[in-house]
Structure formats: C-alpha cells, structure tokens
Amino acid sequence: MEVKTPVMDNRILYVRLPCNPIFPIGVVYLADHVHKLFPTIEQRIFDLGTVPPLDYAFALDQCIDEFKPTLLVFSWRDIQIYAPVGGRGGNPLQYSFEIFYAKNPLVKLHGAFGGLRMLTSYYTELWRNLGLIKRGLKRARKYHPDIRLVVGGGAVSVFYEQLGKSLPKGTIVSVGEGETLLEKLLTGTEFIDERCYIVGESQPRTRLIHEQPTPVEKTACNYDYIESIWSELNYYLQEGDFYIGVQTKRGCPHNCCYCVYTVVEGKQVRINPADEVVAEMRQLYNRGIRNFWFTDAQFIPARKFIEDAEELLQKIVDSGMSDIHWAAYIRADNLTPKTCELMVKTGMNYFEIGITSGSQELVRKMRMGYNLRTVLQNCRDLKAAGFNDLVSVNYSFNVIDERPETIRQTIAYHRELEKIFGADKVEPAIFFIGLQPHTHLEEYAFKEGIVKPGYNPMSHMPWNARKLLWNPEPLGSFFGEVCLEAWRRNPNDFGREVMKILEERVGCADLEEALSAPIETKEKPLVSVS
Questions:
Q1: Radius of gyration over every alpha carbon of the chain, rounded to an integer in angstroms
Q2: What does the alpha-carbon distance between residue 173 and residue 82 come to, in Å, rounded to a whole number?
Q3: DSSP sequence for 59-84
Q4: Which of 303, 291, 294, 243 shows the shortest CA–CA distance to 272?
Q5: Residue 165 DSSP code
Q6: Surface-to-core class of residue 237, CB atoms within 10 Å of its CB (0-12 exposed, 13-18 middle, 19+ buried)
Q7: Segment 238-273, tens digit of pLDDT
Q8: Sign of the CA dihedral 332, 338, 341, 345?
Q9: What is the C-alpha to C-alpha distance for residues 283 and 287, in angstroms, rounded to an integer?
Q10: pTM
Q11: Closest to 405 measured CA to CA, from 527, 517, 266
C-alpha cells in the first residue's frame, strides 16, 4: 500500500534544468503560490542555470542530500535549437542553410561540421537533462521511497507526448501552468483532470494541450520568501543590465498559424491586478533592479485590454519608480496615443513586434489578426510621444504563399518603419519558423503532406530538420542563397543585410500595395483546429 506524505510534512524541491541565463519566473511563481496556500510547507529552489556544467551532478546530489525532498519538481525550459542567433556553440540557422543551399563544397562542409557539432550538443543536452531527472529521483528515494516526481516547463508543454516515453514510470508530466496541479497533489485531491498525465499509468488525453488552464488569482510575488528559499537569487540581481521578468497577464486570444503560446497558455486572457504587479516590481526595485521584462505572451493582446495596460502604466508612474526601464513583446496594433505617452513616460526602452510579414495579404493568411496600416500609425504615435530606442521587428519569410510581390511588400513596409523610427533603431530579426506541434501550421503541413502524423518533432536528423525548419520550395533555395550571402557580407548585422539583398534582387513595392489585401473568393485557407 502506498504511503502518502501528510500535506504539511511535504518538502518541495524545485530543480530548474540548465538553460540560458533567463530569470526562472515560472519556478519562482510556483513556489510563491504554494507558500501562500501552505505557508508551513518547506520549499527550496535549485537553479542549475547558475552551476558550472561539470558540477551539475555533484551539485544536484548535494542539494538533495541536504534538503531531503518529498516532492521533486523539475522545470525544463528549452529543447528546440532553431534560432536566428548563435547558441550551443554556433548558429543553427546558418549551419542548416550552408548544408541545404550552399553551392561551394567547402561552405557545405563547414555547415556539415557545424551542424554535426550542434546536433551532438542537442542530443547530449537532451540525454543529460533526462539523466539529471532520473538521477535526482533515484537520490531522493534514498530518503523518501514514496517521493513524487513532477516534470513541467515550456519544453515539456510542447513535447509532452514525446518526452513521456523517456521519463521514469510514475512521473507526473505537467502541461502549461502547474499551480492547481500542485495544489491538488499536496492535498491528496484527484488531479488527473488537470493538464497532466502519469507516465506508465495513463496516456495523455487527445488534444490535452488545447484544454483551458484553470484560472489562478495572481498576487504580488513575495520576494522576501523567495530569497529565503533560493540562495542563487542574487545571481540575477547583481548585474545592472539584466532584465528581470514580471508577469502582468496570462493567455493569448489569437490564432497565429505557427505559434504555440495560444494553446500552452490558453485563449482566455487573465489580467493580474495592476496594484499587485506594481507591488511585485517595487520589491525588486528595492533590491536594486531597474530593468524589467513583462513576460506576457503579448503585453497588450487585444484592444479590449488597452485600459488594463494604461492602468498599470499609470500606477507605475504614480509609484515614483521613475528611473526604471522595461521591455516587452507588444502587438503594436493595440496602441493609443495615451498608451504611447505612458510607455515612454514609464521608461520603455525596447520592444519587439512580430508582424512576420509586411504584406497584409500574408498576415491575413497566417491568421495574425494584424492591420498593418494601424501598426504604422501607432508606431508614428509612439515616435511622436518621444520613443527613441530600439525596435526589433520579427520577419518570418516563406511561411504561407510567399511570392516575389509579397517580398517586395515586406521590404516597402520595413522601409516605412525605418522612416518612422530611424534606420539605426529598427532591427529586423529574420526567423525561419520551426514547425511546432499543436499549431495550425502543423495541421497545414499534414494536409500538404510535408510531414505525416506520428512524426517526431524532437528529431533533428537532417532529413527531418529540413521539414521542421520551415522554408519550402519554390522559394526555399532563393531565401537560402540570400541568407548565405548576408552572412558572407555582414554577419554582424545579418537582418539588415538580408533586407538589403532582398531589395537588390526583387525590388521594393509601393507601400499602399503592402497595406492592401483584396479578399479572394477562393482563398486557400489553413485547415481549422477546433
């Protein structure tokens, strides 16, 4: 008969698996939530992101030996390797394009060696993280044979079906938010109705990730408590230029064809009270933090939430924290002149917009929900309000029905953004979308026969990687050549060089052409995902 640990006798150890030095806000919020419900439960956060790689195993063993947890929670943030910038010892996009598109055998060879190194690194990290989970569980069982293991985080939420095959039997695989799952687990309440499954005991429900998360009332994180259970907190506070994450809302209501946020976080937008967000910022401010990153999927996801954003920004003004800076991912179609003024007044010094394409026709086909004309006008309002800092504009070429004329439209749109903010202030980030499970784009790929149901999205073997790194023909080779030339010409300013070469090769459309998208009576839609 299984022995259950009484709720107040639980000792929870949160282990954040190694990743880039990004503030582990998910684990911090989980521990804070549990403490507010069960203040006598002992908790500890152990962040392997602050540990040298050669010490991972020893440090994990030492932490478990000292704390002797009864509940082990692993957070796994990163898995996929596709990115437009360097990482894991190289640039995965560049290596992929060198292999697939370079005509010079020496360049192909360079890409092959670089790709092999990164492929080895990817699988090494994958096996290492799985090994750390198994090692931690085995070590903890020395002290509590009935210990429960929960594995969650961003990577797990996307690849929960594949990872379940490699995790220890009995592992609770958590998809999306974990607060209510931990609540039920700690109180002995049936929890299988949450977005989770148990390895070896149950199978993930069909479309599990599409189920809506249970809403949680969010209050300001108690950083005095977090500091008491997380000795590495100062690692993130000591650098003055480090951005610390603060969440103002959860959920994204949109249907962008390639994005997995809307299913991981759910379509229901849940606003955190402005007073609580400011109170959380104030605690960090008092610890010397001046740079904040609002970690929402979208800072202003839709026009109906403009008032909430303005209320928050006004309360930041009223708080007297006048020397801060902040950044976020923003849907620039949801700004008003008042919002722009408050953004500048509160110290926004960087933001990202993911328009994906400067062609209104393609924006519509990708289900982005943007009106590009509105985005331009709002950017003018932002500039008029005094914004003079950096804007990162994400472009994902060759997604759906890209053609030379839509490329010309994107060039025209980008040049207009440069006129508004200044060419040196607008940084084009060139992405080629990695095909993600559970997205509309995946359904489209099934329909078009690009991938088949049952494929392994975690496989980065060359024959699979070429499909997952979305750059289909007939324009795939063209974009491959353009990117290779950009890396050769100006690798330190890759995005701007890509836009320059594209304009040299295909030209620049009239701006009005980019902003107009006549309705087609027989438009080829993406398959729907109900």
A1: 24
A2: 24
A3: HHHHHHHHH--SEEEEE--------S
A4: 294
A5: T
A6: middle
A7: 876 678 999 999 998 888 888 888 888 888 899 999
A8: negative
A9: 7
A10: 0.91
A11: 517
